Amino acid sequence: MNTLMYEAVCISDKNKLVMGSLRERQVEALKQMLSLNTSGNFKNNSVDPSWKVLIYDKTGRDILGPLISVKELRDLGVTLHLMLHSSRDAIPDAPAVYFCLPSDENIQRMSQDINNQLYGGYYYNFISPVSRTKLEDLATSALQSGSDHLIQRVYDQYTNFICLEPEMFTLKQTGDNSVSYYSLNKGSVRDSEMEDMLTSITDSLFALCVTLGTVPIIRCPPGNAAEAVAS
Q1: Is the pTM of this model over 0.70?
Q2: Which among 91, 120, 132, 160 could disulfide-bond with 128, CB atoms 3.0 to 4.6 Å apart, if both were Cys?
């Protein structure tokens, strides 16, 4: 078993009818993000596009890839979609939507982008919640470069899972072996590694609950990693 797969089941058919499938809810959240978090009917494409650049990391790419096509990105006003850690030219007339994990490496590169004023505005969308310390680091960098006025919005998106089917998702990104059955159960795992894996799993499952807008009933066997995640 090289990956962790979970099936998301709504509490009742009534709730499922009202809320839509997990995939639909995540697509709606992502389209709202790409429309600069404005209100609109995304299913009927009744939102006027605002032209922008989309910047994502590897995790953001893996989340968006199965859900939104290149044509849909264009319909939502995305003229370019680029990797965060790549060589990018300045486009000072266009706003940029960032969709990234709040890792130290990503925060450093985002700070570098705003210091260089690559874009006309910055909409930061973090895949999982950003800590106050990292947010302050980003704000300090913007203030020191005089670019703080370019920051338009900062959002925690709670979308840290990959939805492959209407009611099925995975926590594992492409080529990422940090969270797997083997990693959780190998005898040589260090406490710090186990804590990182449990935190990653917990963040993703919490994102799932936020996306569904529901409080889960949690059942788990005692005395193993599942109990730690549940706690």
Answers
A1: yes
A2: 160
